[in-house]
Amino acid sequence: MNAWGTAAGAFVGTLALTTALRAASELRLTRMDLPFLLGTAVTVNRTRAKAIGYLMHFLNGQIFAFVYFAVFVAIDQTGWWLGALFGLAHGLFAGTALVSILLPLVHPRMGSPQTSAPRTALLEPPGFLMLNYGPSTPLVTVCAHIGYGAIVGGFTSLDA
Length: 160
Fold this sequence. Notes:
Helices cover 67% and strands 0% of the residues. By secondary structure, the protein is an all-alpha fold. Keywords: Membrane, Transmembrane, Transmembrane helix.
């Protein structure tokens, strides 16, 4: 197992995941804009939110990759297929608990079932499996995360 490979895999995997999500958005398969969601948690400026969101997304890609790495080390096994399995779990977690329950609780500009009509404009919450952003969103995001995991697992398994 190779920590440098994990770091490189995290970058390449996050690049692939981000590209897949952006392409799906442009093809109107989803309205999900993860960097925008992340960035608006820290700024109201829409342009700055996108830039900050991309930085946050790539940082999260590194963090998640090293969580994968820790599990690879703990079970003394790695590979693209195991990474893809982790990516599947990661994508399902992201689409259920992370963005439908946790994100609306901590995001200062995201609506929730508890909000009414406050003075500040709110972002639409993703909802369960992010279905509020389109019926294809669950499939697109889970597939993108499987790809991310396969890339991270593959890079991690390379000899140093």
